Amino acid sequence: MSFTLAVCSEMVFTDLPLLERVERIHAAGFAVEIWDWTQKDAAALAATGAAFTSMTGYVSGDLITPEGSEDLLRTAELSIPFAQAIGCPALNLHGTGLGEGGVPVRPVEVVTGEMWLAAGRTLSRIAELGERHGVTFVLENLNTEVDHPGTPFARAADTLALVAAVDSAHLKMNLDLYHAQIGEGNLVELIRRAAPHVGEVQVADVPGRCEPGTGEVRWSFVARALADAGYDGVVAMEAFASTAGTAGSDRALESFREAFTP
User: Rounded to an integer, what distance in angstroms lies between the CA atom of residue 168 and that of residue 173?
Assistant: First the structure.
């Protein structure tokens, strides 16, 4: 197994300012992921010396409505200079914009065939945008049962189908195994099917969305399944520390390292 291990700076060391979180994650030997870039300083992040593997790659918009699609393309293009300034190769997308608490800005109860076609057209344009600028957009699966009710194209099977249909090196799947365990389960078979289209993997244990080792998933087995499927890219912990405080986050990072290091 040879993965690039990254940690989401939005969810650990939450008692510290963001730049200090980034510095601690970097000092511990991990790459770093961030969410919304609009309130962050690219120069200050770059000055930490950290490697950044993923960031939110849009500000607003959706995949299915004409106005939402244009907004998604516009704000995705606005995100690229920030990504380039911090050396971040992957820009993360969702089926629709997410508001406070992860609730969809435009929830959808039933996804129609026309919505699927519209999403495919939007993502084809996103892939073309990525190709022009030398970046990769990754489409993340979410769960609708606990965290993101009403999100269209939320299941891993949905994001995989869309990414495979576009079939571009500049649009990949962000396979979030926390969300997939809640919404679909059968993680090893999912990994085998999705591996050729995966640009990033994110993990957190279930239930609770805390570090590996705190829930029901046997992460060492999952790590071996990823390696056996030929995946050797980024595995990122997008999880809360199960114990509060800086020491708790330090332990969470080590639990993550242990689960994904042979």
Answer: 11
Alpha carbon 139 to chain centroid, angstroms:
8
pLDDT in tens, 234-257: 999 999 999 999 999 999 999 999
206, HSE (Cβ side, Cα atoms, 13 Å): 20
Which whole-number Å values give the CA distances from 123 to 95, 137, 149, 203, 257, in the listed order?
Answer: 10, 9, 22, 24, 33
Task: Decide if pLDDT at 183 tops 70.
Answer: yes
Q: Tokens 């990754």 appear where? A: 138
Domain count for the chain, please give it: 1
Spatial contact of 19 and 44, defined as CB atoms under 8 Å apart: yes
Burial 138-163 (b: 16+ CB within 10 A, else e): bbbbbbbeebbeebbbbbbbbbbbbb
What's the farthest any 2 CA atoms get from each other in the chain?
A: 50
Which ranges constitute the DSSP H helices of the chain?
Answer: 18-27, 42-47, 66-86, 113-133, 156-166, 177-183, 187-194, 219-228, 245-259
pTM of the model: 0.96
Give the position of tokens 């406070």. 100
Residues 5/233, Cβ–Cβ less than 8 Å:
no
Q: How remote is the C-alpha of 57 from its chain's centroid? A: 10
Residue 99 domain boundaries: 4-259
CATH number at residue 170: 3.20.20.150
CA proximity to 134, closest of 170, 92, 81: 170
